[in-house]
Structures are given as structure tokens and as C-alpha cells.
């Protein structure tokens, strides 16, 4: 039997070295308001919001990121167009490492966040 759920990806966790700085970076780049949660375990985390609070998202957590650009790539939805998000990404301290890449579902670009995490910026 082949397992084929509605959504194969159910959550993302992005390790960061400084939670407050990472919250500021992701809020600025993705024009959002990450919610700091203090009662989810041993560490504080910051949750990515979804419109109905039931969507698939994830969180930032204090952790040790992989070496720069070597970990998995997390793709995050752009709040506006791809180029504006890429510009904010670089201005906020990240490194944009590709030009826009078209795919049937939209376009995306690769970036490296200030902690070295590989981040895809995706616009449908």
C-alpha cells in the first residue's frame, strides 16, 4: 500500500541562535507577526500564524542550525510579490542566493537566513 495523505508536510521547525533577532527578521521579511509561545516545552518558540489558526505552519526555536546552506530548505509563502520579499530578505540581513525560479505553481527564490538556514521564498 502507498501512503498518500492530503498533506505530507505537517510542520516545520527552524532552528535559530537568537530567538528575538530571528522573530524580527521573519516578521520584517514576511510582513507577519510571529507569536511567542512560552508554555510549549522547555524552550520558548515563535509560531508562524495562519489565517484560520488551523493551517499548516511551523515555528522558530532556539537550536543549532546546520552549517550555512546545508540543511533542508523550508519554503515560505511571500506576502506580496517575490521581488519585494527578496529585497526585504536581503535588507533584513539574509542572503538571496538565486534569481527567481519559475515552476508550474508559481515562482520561488532561495535565500540563507542570518543563522544559515536555507529558506525558499515562494509566490504562487
UniProtKB/TrEMBL annotation:
This is Lactoylglutathione lyase. Keywords: Lyase. CDD domains: SgaA_N_like. Pfam families: Glyoxalase. The keyword Isomerase does not apply. Gene3D superfamilies: 2,3-Dihydroxybiphenyl 1,2-Dioxygenase, domain 1. PANTHER family: GLYOXALASE-RELATED, VOC DOMAIN-CONTAINING PROTEIN. GO terms for molecular function: lyase activity. The keyword Signal does not apply. Residues 8-124 form the VOC domain.
Amino acid at each position: 500500500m502507498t501512503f498518500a495523505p492530503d498533506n505530507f508536510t505537517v510542520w516545520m521547525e527552524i532552528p535559530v541562535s537568537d530567538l528575538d533577532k530571528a522573530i524580527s527578521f521573519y516578521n520584517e521579511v514576511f510582513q507577519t507577526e510571529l507569536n511567542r509561545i512560552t508554555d510549549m516545552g522547555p524552550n520558548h518558540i515563535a509560531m508562524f500564524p495562519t489565517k484560520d489558526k488551523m493551517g499548516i505552519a511551523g515555528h522558530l526555536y532556539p537550536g543549532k542550525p546546520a552549517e550555512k546552506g546545508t540543511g533542508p530548505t523550508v519554503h515560505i509563502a511571500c506576502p506580496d510579490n517575490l521581488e519585494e520579499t527578496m529585497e526585504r530578505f536581503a535588507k533584513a540581513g539574509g542572503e538571496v542566493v538565486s534569481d527567481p525560479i519559475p515552476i508550474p505553481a508559481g515562482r520561488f527564490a532561495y535565500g540563507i537566513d542570518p543563522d544559515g538556514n536555507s529558506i525558499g521564498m515562494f509566490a504562487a
